[in-house]
Amino acid sequence: MEERELVPNFSQQERLDQVLRMLEARDAVQVTELAELFSISEVTVRSDLANLANQGLVARVRGGVRAIRQGHAEVGFDLRLRLDVERKRAIARAAAAMVEEGDAVALDSSTTAYYLALELRAKRELVVVTNGLLVATALADAPGITVVVTGGMLRLSAMSLVGDLGTDVLRTTRINKGFLGARGISLERGLMDLSPDEVRIKQEMADACEQVYGIFDGSKWHRSALLAFVMPEDLAGIITDSSAPEAEVEAWREAGVQVRMVDPGPREPLPMRPRDLRRAVRNDEAVG
Fold it and tell me: How far is CA 210 from CA 154, 171, 186, 192, 228, in A?
């Protein structure tokens, strides 16, 4: 039998984060295995899982919980927003420091881009182009920032807009810097994602930018995905965290891509949550 490394003395929030991290790579987790992993009672595990289910982040199944997925095996935005928060916020702060007043900036619909949007709220005289509705919402009331949202079809799982309307806008726009998340990375294939629609809009966004930067935490360095959207030679740089594998980081640097690694800060309270656009969409559909 495979031995499991126990995770002792974790707080409830740390246990919840670990469950979400497990569900990013798996369809479901069981109460019994979590009790063994965390060295806690099954009663406590069930309480933890009920907490996640009440937040709408997981669905209860017999003996455990499963991830809420919508198409292409994607994990929903809300769940991904809770994963590796300190790492994503450190990456976002480093990326925001590269943005100058007067810049036009492109952000995709990734969760790291959402945290970057929160950091950009303090900037002035920016134009931000995005296909992410929650990214746009985070900047909607920021003084001095003009938000341009690409058009297209709504993808509910990512709260993003994709399709020809969005690509038409980007083909007539010139943007200084683009910051794009990724689900996987390869020195041969570049930055990769799962959804063909999402990949297409990322490609158009990258083509409209003078400089393109990848923004993703260290877990993405160990993954692949279906489709590539930016080749290594088209990247101005990568901003990641200190958990990225050193050998792979060095290989990218030897290939001529600047890679900046940042240290995550201490655990902080989660930032303000975006308006629940999913609920608004569902309510509108019900009324219609």
Answer: 27, 13, 22, 20, 19
Tokens found for residue 1? 């039998």
Separation of CA 43 from chain center: 32
Check residue 189 and report its DSSP letter.
Answer: T
Residue with tokens 């740089």: 237
Residues in the chain: 288
Half-sphere exposure of 122 (CA within 13 A, CB side): 8
Structure tokens, 8? 């002792």
pLDDT tens digit sequence for 131-185: 999 999 999 999 989 999 998 888 876 778 888 776 777 777 789 999 999 988 9
Domains of the chain from N-terminus onward: 12-68 (1.10.10.10), 79-277 (3.40.50.1360)
- pLDDT tens track for 273-283: 554 544 544 44
pLDDT, residue 82, reads 76
The Cα–Cα gap between 110 and 15 comes to: 24
Q: Are 39 and 8 in contact (CB under 8 A)?
A: yes
How large a percentage of the chain has pLDDT more than 90? 53
Q: How far is CA 73 from CA 49, 69, 206, in A?
A: 21, 6, 25
The answer to whether the CB of 107 falls within 8 A of the CB of 117 is yes
Helix (H, G, I), strand (E, B) or coil at 242: coil
Taking alpha carbons only, the member of 243, 252, 193, 237 closest to residue 218 is: 243
| 212-256 per-position pLDDT tens digit | 999 999 988 977 777 899 999 999 999 999 999 999 999 999 999
SS3 29: strand
